[in-house]
Amino acid sequence: MQIHLRRTRPQRWSEWRKGVRAWMVSFAMIEYGMEWVVYALSNWRFLEVLEYLGSFGVLVAVIFYFAESGDRLKQKHYQAWQVINSAEGKGGNGGRIEALVELNADGVSLVGVNLSSAFLMEVRLPKAKLARANFEGADARKADLRGASVEDARLRGANFRGAQLEGASFARSALDEADLTGAELKNADLRGASLEGADLRDADLEGAKWDGVQSVKGTNVRGVKNAGFVEWALGHGAVEEKE
Asked: d(Cα 2, Cα 40) in Å, to the nearest integer?
């Protein structure tokens, strides 16, 4: 913003002091002197040069800020991966939820990530790329993986109670002994997956693709919403139990 303004030459003292009361003359003289100082500085080219240099400095800073934005993003992703990798195979959260959400929001692939035994309750990873990920023993209750790609993944013993899994692909994944009670699996892809010993009580499988499911032996299908799947599963070793 331009702040350097050229000032007009102050009036003569004899004219300027007109109307100034006698008791204010001392203060008026100070004010009059300051007007001359301002006038002199406003015509000093050096100050104008400094102002332009300041504006130029701001412009350079803005250019460098945007030029380095890519490096800052890479650094942010690197730190997020450090959090995830340092907690690999350990229980608890350890900052993984925030790191995973951040990476997914930036469109970073999470293929092959190891989240075994992690506490991931209510993690939000819609449309995440999680192929070949390891969720064995993870606590992902009420997680949001809608539309996620979780093909060829290991989810044995994972807890997905009440999870939002609509449209997610679990093709060829191992969901043996996973707890999917009350999970939303509408239009999910379960083709080639193994669900042996899994708990599907009250899960919604309407529109789910289940052709070629490898095993449903011991799978609890009580209350499952998809009559065709239930009938097929019961004929292939599934059970209907309250608990």
From this structure: 18
Q: How far is CA 224 from the centre of its chain?
A: 33
130 and 63 fall within a common domain: no
Q: What is the pTM of this model?
A: 0.71
Amino acid at 187: N
Residue pLDDT, tens place only, 187-240: 999 999 999 999 999 999 999 999 999 999 999 999 999 999 999 999 999 999
Measured distance CA(189)–CA(227) in Å, rounded: 17
* 140/59 Cα distance (integer angstroms): 47
Domain span holding position 26:
13-67
Mean of pLDDT over the chain: 84
Domain identity same for 106 and 216: yes
Angle at 168 between CA 164 and CA 169, to 5 degrees: 150
Q: How far is CA 83 from the centre of its chain?
A: 15
**Residue 140 sits in the same domain as residue 216:** yes
Contact 113, 134 (CB under 8 A): yes
Count of domains observed in the chain: 2
| Residue 36 burial (CB count, 10 A) | 13
Question: For 134, phi and psi rounded to 5 degrees?
Answer: -115, 110
Tokens at 3, concatenated: 């702040």
Given a contact cutoff of 8 angstroms between Cβ atoms, the answer to whether 240 and 219 are in contact is: no
pLDDT tens for 27-75 read 566 666 676 666 666 666 555 666 666 665 666 666 655 555 556 678 8
